[in-house]
Write a structure and sequence with these properties.
Length: 483
């Protein structure tokens, strides 16, 4: 079982490293396939050519014998009978590795080499198989008989214009064929080694060739919005095409940086320019409401709605201005050491005045000292507590838990509200993101509160996370450094 598990782990790791859709994999497979085709073609042609060279001499010998044999029979037939002349011509041409026999049209053997009676290879079986061969072509062909290789051809034997039968000539080429097969085996091993070696070399070469692209990918992964102005890709050893791509990418980063800066400046300018007149409008509305003795009920309600919307717009502009300052690096933090217990109690008192809701403080120790910006942290806590009050039931309390470790201070704001879907939890700190789009601005806000919380907490060297479950509530955890 352990072996099977280890094998499965190895296969799993290989599958993770090999991406069939990657450019490296496709180039490796493509070039390897072309290499295999090319080497295979050369190997097949070389094998065929070698075999032709090996049998060229025996083939010429057989063709010479088949050409001269009818003339020899004619010469001997003038002095003796045709059967005796056949025997005499066969004995004259026969050698230890060369066999000759003549068969009548009815396949009866007219004459044959004496070695066919007791062949030097494997007994009478070989002789029987040789004598039973028929229908062979004029061109010599290789036959394997009892682990021996014979080059055989057969032609009609015509003497003095009369066809006597068929002439068969066989030459043993076992040694040549054995040598040829040994060479083919060696070539096969060399072929496999060459394919494996070339595949590894191709894979390594392609991997190194694509290294500049990987460097570009790694460099672009760490580029953030703040780095757009200074981010530049420098690839000294890259090919010309990759350098051109890097230069194009650098120009794109410059354009993105300019566009981002223009957008940030626009938001900052608009927020700053609109906040002042809206503040004046809000002041006039409040002043009018305070002297509302001569207003009708409908007029007073309209003015209250206008004042409320104006106040919400001012807060939205303030949030946008804070984010613009944070993006520009102009948001400064006054870090100091103080007791978080007192600040939390102050914020809870402020929240209870406006909501009349139960807010419980749980702490593991007192006092808990923290190093942070007091005013910014108060803004964070007010945002998180207000968020918890909006999204929880009126009869359910909101709990604030304080804890301290050796290096950090943890603040948790817990509610028992409707919760946040898991797929949306990763987006709630994004700007203008709202979990429930159906909520109005009076309850749901503009989607900037949690984004500002994250920006402020990270500006104070801390972190903020959320853990939520539908129907059970949410827990926002703020971690800040201890002094």
């Amino acid at each position: 079982m352990s072996f099977i598990r280890s094998y499965q782990q190895v296969i799993s790791k290989i599958k993770q490293k090999i991406d069939p859709f990657s450019l490296q994999f496709r180039l490796t497979v493509g070039i390897t396939a072309v290499s295999i085709f090319g080497i295979s073609s050369i190997a097949i042609w070389t094998s065929w050519k070698m075999q032709q060279l090996l049998i060229s001499s025996p083939k010429q010998n057989i063709q010479h014998i088949t050409k001269r044999f009818p003339q020899d029979v004619e010469l001997y037939s003038e002095m003796m009978s045709v059967e005796t002349g056949l025997k005499k011509a066969i004995d004259n041409r026969t050698t230890p590795n060369l066999l000759i026999w003549v068969a009548y049209p009815n396949k009866v053997i007219a004459a044959k080499s004496i070695t066919l009676v007791a062949p030097p290879w494997q007994g009478n079986d070989t002789s029987t198989q040789l004598l039973s061969l028929s229908g062979m072509t004029i061109e010599p062909e290789i036959y394997q008989i009892n682990q021996r290789y014979l080059l055989i051809c057969g032609i009609p034997l015509i003497v003095k214009g009369t066809k006597i039968g068929n002439l068969y000539v066989a030459q043993d080429i076992t040694s040549e064929q054995t040598m040829f097969e040994a060479v083919i085996r060696s070539m096969g091993i060399a072929y496999i080694v060459a394919i494996v070696t070339s595949t590894v070399a191709i894979a390594i070469y392609i991997k190194r060739s694509l290294q500049p692209l990987r460097q570009m990918s790694q460099m672009t992964q760490v580029i953030s919005v703040e780095d757009l102005g200074q981010a530049q890709l420098h690839l000294e050893q890259a090919p010309s095409e990759v350098k051109e791509l890097a230069n194009t990418f650098n120009m794109m980063l410059s354009r993105l940086s300019q566009a981002w800066e223009q957008q940030r400046q626009f938001v900052s300018n608009v927020s700053h320019e609109l906040r002042t007149p809206l503040t004046i409008v809000y002041g006039y509305l409040q002043s009018t409401l305070r002297r509302s003795t001569n207003l009708t009920e409908a007029q007073q309600e309209a003015l209250e709605i206008a004042a409320s919307e104006t106040d919400s717009t001012i807060h939205l502009l303030q949030d946008l201005l804070d984010l613009a300052r944070a993006d520009s690096g102009y948001m400064h933090f006054h870090l100091e050491s103080f007791f978080i217990n007192d600040l939390v109690a102050e914020v809870v008192g402020m929240a209870q005045q406006f909501s009349s809701r139960e807010i419980v403080i749980e702490t593991s120790s007192y006092p808990i000292e923290i190093r942070s910006d007091r005013n910014r942290l108060k803004q964070v806590l007010l945002n998180l507590i207000d968020n918890a009050l909006k999204y929880s039931e009126p009869n359910e309390p909101v709990t604030i838990k304080l804890a301290q470790t050796h290096d950090n201070v943890t603040i948790q704001i817990c509610d028992k509200g409707c919760g946040i879907p898991l797929q949306k939890q990763a987006h709630i700190f994004e700007r203008f993101y709202r979990v429930d789009e159906a909520r109005g601005r009076s309850t749901g806000g503009a989607g900037l509160g949690l984004s500002i919380v994250k920006t402020l907490i990270e500006g104070m060297d801390g972190s903020v996370t959320v853990r939520s479950k539908l129907g059970e509530g949410s827990v926002f955890t703020v971690i800040l450094p201890a002094p």
